[in-house]
Amino acid sequence: xxxPQTLPPRTALAGAALLLCALLACxxxxxxxxxxxxxxxxxxxxxxxxxxxGTPRRAWLCCxxxxxxxxxxxxxxxxxxxxxxxGGADVNFIDGGADSLLAxxxxxxxxxxxVLALYRFALRRQLTPxxxxxxxxxxxxxxxxxxxxxxxxxxxxxxxxxxxxxxxxTLEEALTPxxxxxxxxxxxxxxxxxxxxxxxxxISADLHVGVFLYALAQSLLFSAVCAAVAxxxxxxxxxxxxxxxxxxxxxxxxxxxxxxxxxxxxxxxSAAVVWLALQLWELKENGPDWKWxxxxxxxxxxxxxxxxxxxxxxxxxxxxVAVLLRRKSVRLLAxxxxxxxxxxxxTGPVYDALHIRKDxxxxxxxxxxxxxxxxxxxxxxxxxxQQEFLYGLLxxxxxxxxxxxxxxxxxxxxxLLDTQQLEARFGEFxxxxxxxxxxxxxxxxxxxxxxxLGFWQPGAFLGNYNDYWIGVQDVADRGWHLxxxxxxxxxYSPAQTLQRNTRFVASGTAVWLMIxxxxxxxxxxxxxxxxxxxxxxxxxxxxxxxxxxxxxxxxYIFMLAVGFPLVCVLPFCSTRTSSPVPSNRxxxxx
Length: 590
Known about the structure:
Layout: H1 9-28, H2 33-52, H3 57-78, E1 80-81, E2 93-94, H4 98-124, H5 137-157, H6 165-175, H7 187-203, H8 207-235, H9 240-252, H10 254-261, H11 266-281, H12 290-306, H13 310-325, H14 330-353, H15 366-377, H16 384-393, H17 396-401, H18 409-412, H19 419-424, H20 426-436, H21 441-451, H22 485-490, H23 495-500, H24 507-524, H25 530-547, H26 558-562, H27 564-569
Antiparallel strand pairs: 1-2
Helix pairs in contact: 1-2, 1-4, 2-4, 3-4, 3-24, 4-24, 5-8, 5-9, 5-10, 6-7, 7-8, 8-9, 8-10, 8-11, 11-12, 11-25, 12-13, 12-14, 13-14, 13-25, 15-21, 24-25
């Protein structure tokens, strides 16, 4: 008679511990006991597989660290109370405690084997190296045509463009004759809009024509970059369904179509970030040649002049180049530093000579200002010297009234804020900020997390501005209005259907997918030059996390959406080149 099989004591103990972790995590995440049992069983199976395959310590550390941070973000995101951008500290806050910390640790124990499974899967499913498929520009042209043609219903239904928010204000600046008064809306963007407005005036006296020409040109350029991403997947040996599926994602999603026609500088800036990543993928193993450096310099110039924080993105990318390429980076660093110096000279002395004002320093101090305001709102004690300085910048009642945990505009843009004194006594401001930090560390952390919610909180769709992208704001009563040309032509308007098709992966989730790609590359321990391709994305996110003015706004991190297929496929690829394979060789698939 066969004896009933029993689990080894060590396995049974591990299963019980995992079940306890699963129950704790599921309780915090408001999931049922069935989900806890399934999660514990999956985690036990994952740990047994990971141990049996001799997973190296490096992979354990990378995957475990990611699981811990991601789980902390998930639980902290569940503790967020959010009632809109204009909500005060009484309705916008994070209600966390010791139970949240325990739940995040428990969740990390369950998430870790899933990350390890992705690591092992990426190791087993490596794609064909870069040069194994011949270059066929016809494929790229076909993808470009597919994407742009699918975007034309948006261009025709919401003619002339999305004139909203900062785009509407930039358009008004472009319509004001003379030298731009400020670089806040970025001089090259203003001049470009003026060019298309002039071009439109040659066709018609209606200003809508010039605006439409700008949106049309932007959509063409943006769709070309999207096609380049899909084409890159085709070139690295990804299955054809993955490459063409990426092209179809861009083509059929109103998320990308609406960004193509909105008058925001963020669309082309994000496209330039992705283009820089694609250029870094083309970088030769023995370092860049001069032709490559010229193309890199042109892209870097566009980044620096198309958005004010582009210079900082470039500097962080150059730092990554220096670390990852070392001696091979000299020529590239020289070109990048030359672009940086040129940018500083033009936006400094040249703009001063033209009487083009720079942004106030308060624009870069959103987060420190928010943290100090949160400290004052919480009733923290201030010394007489601190009170004299801070209330000299802004009266106490204004610090309190202007503080919205997820929006810094009312604080940094307060008419009573003495920006001149803030610039003149910037060092003292940083000193007071640092003095308040130790005693108010928790308040500082909560204020930071609430100000940056949309860029670390997984799974949140707040702030996607679905209708806001493709509407019209007539800020100067110029008579701007939308015209539905499809309705005029066929008597049917697809506007509502198109507006419903403007969702994508949440911005916070996209950030964690980017970090996951970097973690998988580090865990593999080889071909770390792939991290260089992620550097433009990571640099854009890092700069944003230091000075973001609003908690939810996808446009600031839009480059992660544009480069989404690139980020997902990178852990499966190699930047190393090899000789072409015979044409009858079977393709490697994910």
